[in-house]
Amino acid sequence: MPEKRNRxxxxxxxxxxxxxxxxxxxxxxxxxxxxxxxxxxRDALRRPAGAPQFVSIEPLPxxxxxxxxxxxxxASALLAEALQQEEESATAASGAAKGASAVGNADRKPAxxxxxxxxxxxxxxxxxxxxEVLVQDENLFGIKIFNRLDNTPPKAAFTEPKRSIAGGxxxxxxxxxxxxxxxxxxxxxxxxxxxxxxLTVFPASASGEVLPKRSLRTPHGTYGISxxxxxxxxxxxxxxxxxxxxxxxxAKDRDKPIRTLEGDQTQLADPHGVAVDxxxxxxxxxxxxxxxxxxxxxxxxxxxSITVYPxxxxxxxxPIRVIQGPKTRMNWPASLWVDSERGxxxxxxxxxxxxxxxxxxDSGDVAPQxxxxxxxxxxxxxxxxxxxxxxxxxxxxxxxxxxxxxxxxTANGDTAPLRIIRSxxxxxxxxxxxxxxxxxxxxxxxxxxxxx
Length: 452
Hints:
Largest sheet: 4 strands, antiparallel
Number of strands: 28
CATH architecture of the largest domain: 6 Propeller
Shape: globular
Number of domains: 2
Structural class: alpha+beta
Order of helices and strands: HHEEEEEEEEEEEEEEEEEEEEEEEEEEEE
């Protein structure tokens, strides 16, 4: 019996030895493979930014579910390209298979909308030949034209414009903020900001949703406009580049600037308004104070200012004077107007709810010689000013209360306007939802936060 047991055990023992050897080999190669995978993963994590990166693997979603999609493996190199490929695939799939589950961007109607339904006026200009006042409507994307002597009664809801240039793709006006009217032809120059990069020019009689007679491709973030009629040159401020670009007045399409003022020495910092004094060969620019140090490629913050340059300044030219400091009251200074004959600067002082007036020769931390401000004045978030020297009147466009107000040129303090043109009920304030750059949800307070 013992001999029989030994004969039966030998093949079993051999089989056990083979199984143990195989398991050892699997364990060895398994650990080696695992180690190589770990090292490969670590190497992937060490790759510099901009190189292809392994992000994650997600299971495919159910046919009727909503979850993150698997980035297609065929996309090359960058994640951005992969996402773009995913969106294009989703668009193609939705067109080919009607009723299939939606992927990519969801085209859904909002449950409700929070917006200001009234015009908000970012800039103002006059056509003195036609006795008209024009105001840029940055909220509804258009230009409203009124008679110069229009005056909204206190109990009236608003004054109807005599005509409007409508917004939309046809007019190429979005977030239109700069306005100029040619004193000879009445042509209307409209500067856009934020979303499209166009300066559009309309004839004086333009009405409705009309094509501009010409347009000019401008740098992104263009804001203010001023024209030297003697030299037939057009000056535009560019917020994001901290620059002033100069074009021929008749520039169109993709014409390039003939001069650019830009650089650290210019002290331009988020420039908004620009005014040319061709009589004294000077250029005045208002700055919000958000600048860039070009050498360091870094941002900087400075107090709001008015910087003054020779009229033909270009390149990295330092200002010849700077008006800046707490005495100036400047807070988000926007458009400005220079009165060459009297040597005065009129500034729409947005965040201070005021219009401040300086001498053109002022420098440093100086107080304005006049300030229009207070509840009687109806000045609320002003961003546009226009001096009508013919009638000795100062016009102001107020983004904060849907109105255009007009004063005696020498008005000072809490002075009631001579006339007011309202496009909303008296006391109706703008919602201040201007150009939201992002939104956030506060779940604790059940509130939506939108910075403007």
